[in-house]
Amino acid sequence: MQSIRAYIRQVSLLMVLAVGFATTFSSASVAGVVGTGEVLTEQRADVDRQSLMTMLDRQDVKDALSTMGVDESEVENRIQSLTPSELADFNDQLADAPVGQDVVGIIVLFLLVFIVTDLLCATNIFSFINCIR
User: pLDDT tens digit string along 69-103?
Assistant: First the structure.
């Protein structure tokens, strides 16, 4: 009976050390708790991104982009790379824009976003814009 207790004590000590070691070194790889606000922001960004992509499917938007010399795939890539806050700002500006000017306003806004990201060295779409760094 004494030998079983000594054996169980040794195994218990080994298990405590193993669990402590695993907890200490695996906590860096475990993701933290995600709040409801963060989840809602991401879902809102997905909805905003999808609405912009469907707007690009309109023929008048495609025609306006082609007359300005902007490739549709570049615009799609740029929309996919926008942060949730940039998407929210963009959609707020779209909501405030008059109905008749939405296509031109959208195109101008995209071009401004592209120019700013080129200036900040985030992208290199326009070769005539130099990075400010």
Answer: 878 888 888 888 888 888 878 777 777 766 555 66
Q: Which of 61, 60, 97, 67 minimizes the C-alpha distance to 79?
A: 61
Residue count (the chain) = 133
Q: What does the alpha-carbon distance between residue 29 and residue 25 come to, in Å, rounded to a whole number?
A: 8
CA 129 to CA 64: how far, in whole Å?
Answer: 22
CA distances from 57 to 6, 72, 74 (A): 74, 10, 14
Q: Is residue 85 helix, strand or coil? A: helix
Render the burial of 29-61: b for 16+ CB within 10 Å, e for the rest: eeeeeeeeeeeebeeebeebbeebeeeeeeeeb
Distances (CA, A) of 102 to 1, 3, 54: 84, 83, 14
| C-alpha span between 84 and 48 (Å, rounded) | 9
